[in-house]
C-alpha cells in the first residue's frame, strides 16, 4: 500500500509512534510518505520505501498567524496525486485531521477518494482539543475520518465523554520495537554516570506542566536520603529551568544530570534502575513502555491509560497523582532490595512484550485495508 503519514516531527510521543509505525510498515513492503514541516526526529533512514515531503509555510507579514493547515492540505493534495497515495494516516487531531479532510474534499473534485485514518494521541483530546475554541472543528474532523483509533482504552473513554462522536473508535495501543531496547547489561557504561553503590533513576518527558516535574524531583529527593542515587532528567520544556532551580534549593544539583533532548534514550535506559512518570494525565505513557522494554520498572501515577501499561505490583507501582510520599515509599521498596529490583526488571520486560510492534502494526494494516475496501464498495 502507499500510505501518507502526517505527524508532529518533534520528540513528543505521537511523532515517535508515527515514525516507528512508518518504518515498520516500510519493512513490510509498504511505501511510506511522511508529510510534515520537518524531518521527524526518529527518522534517520530515507530509502526506497520511506520518503519525506516537507510542508513549507511561506512567511507573509500580513498574517499574524501563518496558515499551516492550508499549506498542509495543499501539500497533501499534491503528494496524493504525485505518489498515488492510497491512505492518509494522520496522527494528532489538531490540525492534521482537519487539514486531511480539506485535502480529501479537494481531491474529490478530480474524482480521487483517499480515506483518512485519524489516530488520537491524548492532549489533542484531553487538554487542547476539548477547549471550546477548537472543539467543533475537532469533533467534525473526528466524525468525518474514515477510521478513528485511540492509543488506549482510557483515551477512547475520554474521547466519547468529551465529544459527540458518531464514528466507531478502535483502540490500537502504542507499541515498541523490542529489538531497539535489547541491552547487554555489562556494556552500559553506567560507571560514567554513577558509582557502583548508587542507583540510577530516570525521568524522560517534554517537561511540560502536565508531567508534574516537581514531583519527580521531590520523589528523588526523598529516595536519595535513604539510598545513594543519581537522577537523569531527559528532555526539554518549560519546566526544565524551574526543576534545575528546585534541585539547587534542595542541595541535590550534584546528583542530578539534565541531558536535554536525546536521541540516545536506549543508552540512558540501559543503565537505569527505576523510571519515574508522575504525570497529571497521560493517555498511554510511551516513555514508560520504552523504559519497561529496557527492563526498567516504573513508578507512575495511576491516571489515564498508564494503568493499561504499567501493572501495579508487577512492572512497577502506581500512586495517586501528586502523592509524592507514596511514590517515594514504593521507589524505596524496590530499590532497597536487589533481588526484588531484579524481579521487577524482569517483569517490566515481560509486560513490555505485550506491546510488541509485531503484534500491533498488523492491526493498523487491517484498518487501512478496511477503509480501502469500504471506499471501493462505495464506488
Ligand atoms: O505528552 C507528551 O509527551 C506528548 C504527547 C504527544 O502528542 O506527542 O504524548 C501523547 O501521545 C503519546 C503517544 O501516543 C502518549 O504516549 C502520551 O501519553 C500522550 N500524552 C498525554 O496524554 C499527556
Description:
The protein has 379 residues and is α/β, with parallel strands linked by helices. Helices cover 43% and strands 16% of the residues. It has a seven-stranded parallel β-sheet, with helices on both faces. Helix 3 (93-108) packs across helix 5 (135-144), helix 7 (213-226) packs parallel to helix 8 and helix 10 packs across helix 13. The protein is elongated and about 70 Å long. Bound molecules: ligand GMT. Residues 12-15, 17, 92, 121-123, 151, 174, 205-206, 210, 281-286 line the site of ligand GMT.
Write the layout of secondary structure elements.
Layout: E1 2-6, H1 13-27, E2 31-36, E3 50-54, H2 68-83, E4 87-91, H3 93-108, E5 116-120, H4 123-126, H5 135-144, E6 147-150, H6 153-162, E7 169-171, E8 199-204, H7 213-226, E9 229-234, H8 240-250, E10 256-260, H9 265-270, E11 274-277, H10 286-293, E12 298-301, H11 306-309, E13 316-319, H12 324-335, H13 338-353, H14 357-378
Parallel strand pairs: 1-2, 1-4, 2-3, 4-5, 5-6, 6-7, 8-9, 8-11, 9-10, 11-12, 12-13
The structure holds ligand GMT.
Query: Looking across the biggest beta sheet, what order are the strands in?
Result: 3-2-1-4-5-6-7
E-strand count: 13
Helix content: 40-55%
The count of helical stretches stands at 14
Strand count, sense and closure of the main sheet?
7 strands, parallel
H/E series: EHEEHEHEHHEHEEHEHEHEHEHEHHH
Which hetero ligands occur in this complex? ligand GMT
Structural class: alpha/beta
